[in-house]
Amino acid sequence: MKQLFKKRLANHLTEMMKYLRLVFNDYFVLALVFLIGGLGYYYSNALKQLHSGIWWAPLLTIGVLLIGIQLGRFATLVQDPDYVFLLPQESEMVYYLRSAYRYSLVLACVTQVIIWIVLMPFVQVTLLATTSDLFYLLASILLLKAIWLNADFARKYRVKSRWVANRFLFRFLLPLAIFTISFYFEYWVGSLLTFLIILFSTVNSWRWGIRPLDWRTMIDDENNRMHTVYQFFNLFTDVPSLNGSVRRRRYLDWLLRRIRLIPENTYLYLYAHGILRDHEMGGLYFRLTVIGTLFLVFIKGEMLPIALCLIFLYLIGFQMIPFYFHFDDNAFVHIYPVTNDHQMKNFQRVLLIMLCAVATIFAIAVIAINYTNVVTIIGVIVGELLEVLAFIYLYVPRRIQRGQRSRNI
Amino acid sequence: MTLEVSNLVGGYSQVPVLNDVSFDVKNGELVGLIGLNGAGKSTTINHIIGLLTPFKGTIKINGTTLNEDVKAYKQQIAYIPEAPIVYKELTLKEHLEMTMLAYNLNQEDAWARAHRLLKKFRLDNKLDWFPDNFSKGMRQKVMIVCAFLTNAKLFIIDEPFLGLDPLAVNDLLNLISDRKKQGASILMSTHVLDTAQRYCDRFVLLHNGKVRTEGTLEQLRTLFPNAGDSLNDIYLSLAREGESE
């Protein structure tokens, strides 16, 4: 079983290296060096302005540590067919999973040490922590991460008492409590407490390690983890293993029910259901809308809000264009007796509705913030209207025609 | 090897799909789990192989539940899922090796048996191919070869006939009867009723998550004298009755 994990890990690392090479290409590394350099410079300058006794300093540190400790998940590397092929080995799976735990812990500890190194000068300056304090803090962080992973380990088993695998408790509440004790009381007390808890959870793990496995949770967890990893890589390159997941989104059904069920609307039906329920597309649309609205809420001015508004609108629309081809791999659409003519019209209609919704939200945000400025109000309305129409009826057809040509080659 | 399901209540989320399901598979017996789509056949099987946790009731293999002894429970089972599920990055040969490792089989004997099985299912020239690219029927054959490579004492087979060619169906049925003769117990879910009628010793008829009735064909005929002679007739009349309820 340990052998199996080693083999899986080797395969996994080769795959990750393949993607990492693509992510960290020369340009990106260069940009990253400048970014880190710039941030470091900014950080060291900021440190000079700081002094001890700032009330928000411990709160900020706790916040950063709490977010930081969530980094690094339990990588089991289990695969879908395992529950069939490894069925007779279930009692031995604990050795496999322990190897996986050790690997995940080492990886997570590296991340935690980096966070600790970055935070070290800040804690020293603002909280007057001594060197031994800092090492107590490091011990707490690493032990907390081990406890965090241990709870995720327990989750893979059908533990008798569910709190052993409670994510909220071990991922959030416990670290919050320990960090609060560390910064507001004594660092070594925090370390001591975490040490006692890790002893307890280790002893406890001998008890749940002989329970039956919860294969469904284990496989789902791992697939979700890999999905996040692939999603990250997908920002830089095309990941073939990434097949979109679908969410039901029942609360949007009232929108979909409005589509008239006539042959001309075949593609409208497909595109509307697809865009709303596709996790990737729906998520992107939602995130960009929220980010855009937030920007607009905080920005005042005459021309700047209009420009920003138009840029975000274009970005959202642009991201949606490839969805035109979303159903091309589906044999059904090639069999349906419908023409491509309707396909384009239907797609434009979906885009129109989606973009109008965003445009309205943006416009409301801009007008609410700049209600005294008539030029901005008129500018935003006219600008958005022109952009949406030009984008959908002039730009999109050309873009798609070009895409179609390159697809046919 | 005996399998005993008693008063099983279970399902995927909080909503129970199965309501008080009880039946058993005795030593050297082939029991057919019969039911319409959605009757709860696969759910029952998922509970038996330990993929789902029962809300209530117990499942015992040779008198042991999964919670009591994971090893004793799981080591005797071979399972063929309804939809073939294979490793993307392993070849057919590696799938067989994986099975040998997992069931701790003697390599030499296992390979001898593997070659016989592969030849039977006409996969012997595809050892270095990736089953992930095979057709549904051929992937199903891979699952069958892997399961019958083992010395399992209890076979759980979920709807094995879909996608298989008639020759393979026949070969699979022969394999099952061979294993039965050697003393293995088999639980097989299906809705190919005429095949089930010819090969199964007993039948458990599931309907809407409940055991509608169970017994040998003779027993079923006496229980439902007006329903007809074949399993098909009896099942259809029971299912229709269930509909109109």
**If classified by CATH, what would the architecture of chain B be?**
3-Layer(aba) Sandwich
CATH class of chain B: Alpha Beta
Any idea how many domains of chain A? 2
Structural class by helix and strand composition of chain A? mainly alpha
Percentage of residues in DSSP E strands of chain A = under 5%
CATH fold-type name of chain B: Rossmann fold
Q: How many structural domains can be distinguished in the coordinates of chain B?
A: 1
Termini Cα gap of chain A? 48 Å
Written as H for each helix and E for each strand, in order along the chain, the element string of chain B is EEEHEHEHHHEHEHEEHH
Which regions of chain B contain 5 or more consecutive residues with pLDDT less than 50?
none
Kindly state the mean pLDDT of chain A as a whole number?
A: 87
Give the number of helices of chain A: 16
Count the E strands of chain A: 0
Largest sheet of chain B: 6 strands, mixed
Specify the oligomeric state: heterodimer
Largest interface: A-B, 22 and 32 residues
Rg of chain B: 18 Å
Q: What fraction of residues of chain B sit in β-strands? A: 15-25%
How large is the count of helical segments of chain B?
Answer: 9
Unreliable residue runs of chain A: none
Describe this structure in words.
Chain A: It holds the Pfam family EcsB. Chain A: The chain crosses the membrane at residues 20-43, 55-79, 100-119, 125-148, 168-185, 191-210, 282-299, 305-325, 350-369, 375-396. Chain A: It comes from Lentilactobacillus diolivorans DSM 14421. Chain A has 16 helices and no strands. Chain A is mainly α. Chain A folds into two domains: 2-230, no CATH class; 250-408, no CATH class. The radius of gyration of chain A is 26 Å and the shape is globular. In chain B, helix 4 runs antiparallel to helix 5 (136-149). Chain B contains nine helices and nine strands. In chain B, the strands form two sheets. In chain B, strands 5-6-7-3-8-9 form a six-stranded mixed beta sheet, sandwiched between helices. Chain B has a three-stranded antiparallel beta sheet with strand order 2-1-4. Chain B has helices spanning 41-48, 70-74, 92-102, 107-120, 136-149, 166-181, 193-199, 217-223, 231-244, and strands at 3-10, 18-25, 30-34, 56-61, 77-80, 154-158, 185-190, 202-207, 210-215. In chain B, 42% of the residues are buried. The termini of chain B are far apart. Chain B is α/β, with parallel strands linked by helices and 245 residues long. Chains A and B meet through helix 4 of A and helix 2, strand 5 and helix 3 of B.
